[in-house]
Specification:
The chain has two helices and four strands. By secondary structure, the chain is of the alpha+beta class. The chain is globular, with a radius of gyration of 12 Å.
Length: 65
């Protein structure tokens, strides 16, 4: 299966985005995340529970810049 990558909606106008592959998540319970500027580089792999916790905290504003 070819992974379909989804770019984050926020890059600060600098192209500093991450991407994740929801197609992989649906079949393996793993969320791969990579730097959109380096699509052939390495990806970090999170289990869906860790990814869900991270996204929940981002949406709640629990991280500071």
């Amino acid at each position: 299966m070819t992974e379909q990558w989804t770019k984050s909606s926020y890059s600060g106008g600098q192209g500093n985005c991450i991407e994740w592959a929801p197609s992989r998540t649906a079949t393996t319970d793993v969320v791969p995340v990579r730097d959109s500027k380096h699509p052939h580089g390495p990806a970090l792999h999170f289990d869906t529970a860790a990814w869900t916790t991270f996204i929940t905290n981002v949406k709640a504003g629990n991280f500071t810049a």
